Amino acid sequence: MTIVLFENKKSCCGCGACVNVCPKGAITMKSDELGYSYPVVDSSRCVSCGACKKVCSYQNEVSFHQPIRSYAAVNKIQDQLEKSASGGVFVAVATYFLEKGGVVFGASLDFEDGHPIAHLICIEEVSQLGHVQGSKYVQCAVDQTYKQAKQYLEAGKKVLFSGTPCQIAGLYGYLRKDYNNLWTIDLICHGVPNLNFFDNYLSMEGKRRGGIPCGYSFRDKKRGWGINTRLDLKAPCGREKRIYIPARLTSYNTLFLDGDIYRENCYECPYARKERVSDITIGDYWGIECEHPELLKQTKFDEKKGISCMLVNTQKGIELCKKLSERIYLSESSFDKIAKKNGQLRRPSVHSERRNTVMTIYQKSGYDGVEKWFRKNYRKQITIHSVYNAIPRKLRMALKSALHK
Question: What confidence tens digit (pLDDT) does each residue in 329-347 have?
């Protein structure tokens, strides 16, 4: 009898642990009608061994950790900080591991023939860090990285594995034992859109702007720390151009921020809580101007360049932090302060009626239909954000500070 992996899509995060563990290669990830990836079993190859069910973090007990310490954090190396989405904590930790002869797993966004490929990869050299830097607001395929990580662990290599909380839980579920040479970092995750939806958005932008997508930054810092994006296009003549797009002026960016394009399980995420699955949790320290205004008076905590929040959840995480003092500025904070503007440390994103509307339109009319709906229904918001983004950043920050006094 063929194994039934899950009864409801809300019970599958698409981590791929089942794919990695199947001894017969009977499980593959396939997209549903909306583009979200789910594991599918080939009944002709399945031997009903049940290995896939044993590694599923949604069907087995997961170990959670109460945060031990909380920090505001900033990378001391300016070049790394500038290329990071916020305070550059991940790249600082990754550099430490690579320089010590370890390996690092992280999310990469590549392009092939104008189409994005979002997946987890393993790097072994500091020169490869650019591939795993920066936020990726799309689900990245785990592929065979759980298997790869286990091979390195068994060989005695130090391994740093980063990903969304469900991907970290998937890794632990797959490994099914503790390794002294494994450290994990999870991200404060709102939820993940699917790659097909993102690809369709980029194709539409490429056609509209006269080029083929060849690069994308979800968090470009040219205009300071925030959620502005950058689209790289290759024109027919072969010349490449970069287009900077302020926050909330595109459909994909806005629908992501509003939580209307995530996969089903994200709205009931068991990992969107105070207790964490990893050694260290990182994210943006949104609201730091209210929680720690004293830090912003120090040159090392520059809001324009980005500031991270950091939760240290295990003793392994504590010991690791001690070794990072030469790479990261750390200032004590508290979980409650960090969680004020990082709601996913308390609860999952809300499934709104808009989400149903967007997905219905997408299924019937493709991304062009979604774009048309967005332009019509978000006309007022687009105008407001266009005006807001036209205001010089220094004046915006001054107004923001005044409002919080």
Answer: 999 999 999 999 999 999 9
Q: Report CA 236 to chain centroid distance, whole Å.
A: 32
Long-range contacts of 392-399 (CB under 8 A, 24+ apart): 393/223, 393/224, 393/304, 397/289, 397/303
User: How far is residue 68's CA from residue 318's CA, in Å, rounded to a whole number?
Assistant: 8
Amino acid identity at 178: D
* Residues 6 or more apart whose Cβ sits within 8 Å of residue 194: 31, 34, 35, 36, 37, 138, 139, 263
Residue pair 188/291 in contact (Cβ under 8 Å)? The answer is no
Structure tokens at 263: 């996969």
Any idea of the CA torsion for 72, 105, 168, 280, to the nearest 10 degrees?
Answer: -20
Pairwise CA distance, residues 84 & 134, whole Å: 5
Least confident interval from 62-66, 183-187, 393-397: 393-397
Q: Where are the alpha helices (DSSP H) in 124-194?
A: 145-154, 165-175
264's tokens:
């089903």
The enclosing H or E element of 70 equals strand 69-75
Cα–Cα separations (whole angstroms), residue 201 to 196, 231, 372:
9, 11, 12
- Give the sheet arrangement for strand 212-217, strand by strand: 212-217, 229-234, 240-245
**Residue 248 carries which DSSP code?**
T
Query: What are 356-362's contacts with CB under 8 Å, separation 24+?
Result: 358/255, 358/260, 358/261, 359/34, 359/261, 362/34, 362/197
Distance, CA of 281 to CA of 188 (rounded, Å): 7
Amino acid at 345: L
CA distance 173 to 17: 7
The reported pLDDT for the residue numbered 405 is 55
Helix (H) or strand (E) holding 177: none
Q: Residue 16 pLDDT > 90, yes or no?
A: yes
CA pair distance 400, 405, nearest whole angstrom:
9
Helices vs. strands in the chain: H and E counts, helices first: 14, 13
Dihedral, 172, 174, 180, 184 alpha carbons, nearest 10: -40
CA distance 135 to 85: 6
Measuring CA to CA, how many Å separate 71 from each of 294, 336, 355?
A: 14, 11, 34
Report which residue type is found at 177.
K
